[in-house]
Each structure stands twice: as C-alpha cells, then as structure tokens.
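Running this now, will post back.
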Amino acid sequence: MSLAQAKRALESERASLQSQIDQIDAALAALGGSSSDSKPRSTRQRKSASRGKTSRADLTQEEALERYGAEALTCPECGKISRAPQGMKAHLRSHAPASS
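Update: finished.
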C-alpha cells in the first residue's frame, strides 16, 4: 500500500467514525441526553487502571478527607486542603523559611 492509499484509507475511516459519532449524538439528543463533547475533559470521571483500586488522583476532596482525615490534609498556615498526605507534606515545605 502506498502512502497516498494509506492516507485515503485513514481519511475514509475518519469520515465513517465521524458519521457514527453524529448518529450517536443525535440519538442522545432525542433521548434527552447530551453529546459526547458536552462535558469538558477535566470534569470527566477518571478510571483507574488498577483492579478496582482507587488511586489518590481519583479521589474527590471529600473522599480524601474521609480516607485520611481533615488534620492530615489541611494546611495549618493557609488552610489549603490537599487530596493526599504526601501532597500536604510537599505543600508545607513552601511555607518553611528558606535555609541558606
């Protein structure tokens, strides 16, 4: 297969997939749902690759407070709330006086 043929095949596949996405979006709209592009990427629920385990990055702030406790996650200097004790430890170093 030449480069031009491969490019045409990929463009055809893209058009086919876009058509399928448009059909799905139309079906969702008809059902009162939303299209796949309606939610910003940053607010989508992350899925952990591990088997049923939740990583610290997957925790909401409320879940982190339940798991680790408010004292371990709240900065005594500025009140910042972290999602993991390790993050709070790193944050606390920013308040430490510079040692030169």
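The radius of gyration is 23 Å. More later if anyone needs it.
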